[in-house]
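LOG
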Amino acid sequence: MIGSEPRTEVDVMACCGSGAVRSPASTATGETVVQDREKLAAVAPMWQTRRPDKRLTRWVNFYLAYRRATGVTMVRTVAALNSILVIVDLAPAIQRSLQGVPSATVSSVTGLTGTPIAYERTGKEEGVIVELTPLGARALLGMPLSELGTARVGMADLFGADARRLTEQLWDADDVDHRFRIIDQWLADRILDGPKLPRALEGSWRSLTGSRGDVRITDLADRAGVSRQHLTTSFHREIGLSPKTVARVARCHWALRLITGRNPPPLATVAELCGYTDQAHLNRDFRLLVGSTPTGLLQSRDAQTDLFLGSEIALHPQHATGTPLESGQPLS
């Protein structure tokens, strides 16, 4: 049954302020987002996740609903991901890219990323994040993911009036569980019969991510019955990243799981377990994919930053301790 999967509640974030009545808020691009400042003030801040309806598990990894407000500017980093993020903003914070490139500031879709994305956010924010597999994104968007690239593109540019209707439905929902059910149905209507990735490419992607990057590209090409060059070219066109980059991201995520879990091993051991040549190699990959070395990540005491790593593990500010990290647990 839609919406029957359990949800996981994690961090409780800073509370929202008060305001007036329901009204539309126009963005700089002219897109309208429904807001109700009185409603924002009346409910507690939250950070809740849930798996999608079982029909969607091949296409969708998870949903995350959030609400919070801060009196300071927060720096948010989205680490390199092997997934596509759809962010539906209901009360969008003011945000600014820290990388000097134009990007959607309201309700965005972000392609697979081989480098971290950083931006500032100020004020109240509320919304839902949907994490799609490449198979799901291909079906939803109806185009090769290389056309999306790593840019943050506005949902309104991709889905037109459907994006606004979804935003309004989510805002009018009775509670977070209702919002998740609305997204279940919205996605099911669009992706179950949508365009599919070629079977060989889907299998290659699942091998790369399932093995935590520990598989040779040549072996994947042999299984697919094509040359390594042909596999690499078609993989990059359809999925948006090269097989080698997908493998590096998967390996980095596994290392992150180890160092942020219970009783983490020494970093030299993590490097060995994850297939890095040494700890220096581990540090270099972390800088490139996460934006910090493992040591810098764990020792940070800056409560004005947070880090998003998708459904594999999510790290975010823990205001009680003043550190932006807590031991992350993947969704079961």
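LOG (cont.) second protein
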Amino acid sequence: MAQKKSLTAQLMQKYRQAQKEKAAEAKRQEQERARIEKAAALAQRERERAAAKRERERAQEWARARKAKEQQEVEKARKADQVVRDLEKRQAAREREAELKKKAQVKAAAEAVKLARQHEVERLRNEAAERTEAVQQQVERLQSVLVQRSSGLHAHRIAVAEALVREGPEGLMATVDEVLGSVAYPAGLRGGVAICVRTRVAGVVAGD
């Protein structure tokens, strides 16, 4: 009976031992699972941190690239504006130069017209003076015919009167023409002027 109880006790002890070992194994496995899960969680967090870091780096790189591109665009825009301003300045300078040139040409043309008018006025003034002098000289020549006529015309009064009585107007004119043919006229007295002078002198001879 004692041996049988001992055997039962042994079986119970072995059973309890097995249970303890089983519980210890389960605990060990649970701890191992916990350790693995913890390690997996740590690895996941590490991967997440690494992914977040890479994402931040990519974001930063993208931000730097975007900023650099924006700076390039700003620089291009600044250079384009500078080119436009330079072109506008050159165009304005050309327009001012053309305007000044045009004004200078207009001024030069006005000066030329003014000078030409002055020359024309001077020419007309000189021409008028020359003509006035010529007319004055001609008047003086005409006056000399009457003022300084030959005193010998008085000697022909009787012949002229007799011709008028004897032959009428035709004889008078023929005798007067013959008398005037011997009269010396001033130099330059020609054509119709000489005829007018002779007619005037004939009147003087007839009525003197």
